[in-house]
Amino acid sequence: RRVHGGSYNAMLARCVRAVRCFHTGLGVVAPETITLNQLKPNYGANKTARRLGRGPGGRGGTSGRGDNGQRKNSGIPARFEGGQTPIHRRIPKRGFKNPNSQDLKPLNLDTIQFMIDCGRINPAETLDLKKIAEVGAVGKIKDGVKLLARGSSWFSTPINIEVTKASSKAIAAIEAAGGSVVTRYFNRLGMRAHLKPEKFKVLPKQAAPPPRVRDYYKDPERRGYLASAEDVEKARADKSEE
Known about the structure:
The protein is α/β, with parallel strands linked by helices. 32% of the residues lie in helices and 10% in strands. The longest helix has 18 residues, at 8-25.
C-alpha cells in the first residue's frame, strides 16, 4: 500500500529513526526495539501435553481409561482360578462348628485362694460373676465362668460362690471348706446386664435356660439354681457320706 509516496513500513522506519535521533540528542537511551521473533510466552504458561498410549503403565496401554469387561470394576477376585474347580470345592469338608457352644472362662480354686490371701476377695460376701470380673480373676467374660478344682488340696476358706458351671471336684472342695456353690444360667443379654447394669436404663428380665441345658440347672448334684433346697441338702448329705 502506498502512503504519501512511500510504503507504510518505510514511513514507520523513518519515524523510529527520527525518535532515536531526538532521544540521542537529549541524552536519553531509546528502548530496544521488540520484534515478532523476540516474542515468547511467560515461564509456566505452557505445559507439555501428556503422551497417552505409549508404553506400559496407567497412561500407556489403556491411556488412563482403565479396563473394560471382566477387569472393569473391582477386578477379578483372588479366589477366581480361571474357571477350574476352586480349592474350596476340591477339598472335602472336615468337622463342624457347634452353634450351641459356650465360651466359659476357667476359674480355679488356687486363684480364688490367692486373691483371698491378697485381700482382693472378701470371703464374707457372695462371689458372683460381677465380683469375679471386678477383681480380675478371669479375663473378659463372654458366656460365663466355669469353676475348676486346681488347688483343691490347699483350699481352706469358706466362701459362697455363684458361677455358670462347676466341676464336681470343685463343688466338693468348697463344701468341704464350709462354703457353697450355686450354678446359674445367663444368656448374652442377661450377662451384659449382670456385669454392667449401669449401661441399661431398664434392666431386662433374666431369661430361663433353654431346653438343652435346663436339666443341668435342675440337677441338685450340679447345685443348679432351679433345684429345690431340699434336693440340694440331700445331695450334700449323700456326698458327705461317701
